[in-house]
């Protein structure tokens, strides 16, 4: 006999358990979302929960207050007319004045409080001479207390602490003043409303204060993130500037030497030409001095001599280029990262110094990102050169055997540095994930500065 009948019930049981667990998980999630909405302050002249992400959450205050108004309005009219003996016209007018302004509390709670407190006070004064007031609550009947607490909740979620304290004290003062004219045989509810109103204001004011604090923290985090990104960008630009200093300084030094030695290498040079070459040499030396002063500022430790000897030696070392990519790949392979290099013939000497250095740094930073975020992933590095540009392509697959990333968070310098180097040379950069889980970095670096005019041939074309 097959055991299929025995396995099916177990399968249905597991599905039922999963469904029940998912339903149970949705309930705390909905409550957490509602709590977040309660803590989110609304802007001026906006209804409560106006910043809620979902439509039903934005409609909830209108629904809740509408239910209270629809319920309290007939109850208030009935109680005032039948239980307290107030005339039908006065009962209807007071019922409307005490309940309908609650709708205004969703956007202008302070204005609604003034109207409701005035209506409640007028009702308390009229109840002093009512025929059936003895044996009932005064000056605040039960339905007045309920409506007032709803109003306190709206106030607490919108107004600052100073306003809430003033509202609470004004409520107590009005009740105390009315107490001097208290009719005989009534139950004074001034203390009850004073205490319950204070509790409601404290609870809702605390929720609003928590929402304000969270909003300020979020704004501060946003500012900090923007400052961090800006600092990262500036640091990367400074590092690129330090590296390019060596490239430009080399050419300026050559110009200086050639200008100084021109009178000795070219005999019979006229005096104006000698003076011209001397001016060129002086300008080149002055530019070199300015560059060295700028580099001292960028390094930040040159004036104080705080830099280590190793760092100084690193600054004096020749800048790498495409000809050093083979050594870079070999070092990465020795570290355990499978990398293949495809280097076009003649690519090592075809690029100008700035492009040569940028190509090397882009490959270096791309391989560093692979080691951090996809260790063990097979990686291909390709560098090709044509008449107009250098194409650098670094592609890696997904991490081998689902290895966990060595670094879950980085400084963000990698892609920022790539973008800055590409922008410096006037090229383009394309980065992004691949469908199989890998990543691709493609940089096009022009061999000629696009801002420079194209040199003409001898025939003027």
Give a description of the structure:
- There is one protein chain.
- The protein is an alpha/beta fold.
- Helix content is 62%, strand content 8%.
- The protein has helices at residues 4-38, 55-83, 88-99, 109-128, 142-156, 161-179, 190-265, 271-299, 309-316, 325-334, 353-373, 413-425; strands at 137-138, 187-188, 339-343, 379-385, 389-396, 428-433, 439-446.
- A hairpin with a 5-residue loop joins strand 6 (428-433) and strand 7.
- Helix 2 runs antiparallel to helix 5 (142-156) and helix 11 runs antiparallel to helix 12 (413-425).
- The longest helix is centred in the middle third of the chain and has 76 residues, at 190-265.
- It is elongated.
- The chain starts with a helix and ends in a 15-residue tail after the last strand.
- Mean pLDDT is 78; it is low at 1-29, 301-315, 402-412 and 453-461.
Task: Give me a quick take on this structure.
By secondary structure, this protein is an alpha/beta fold. It has twelve helices and seven strands.
Overview features:
461 residues; alpha/beta; 5-stranded mixed β-sheet; 12 helices; elongated; disordered C terminus
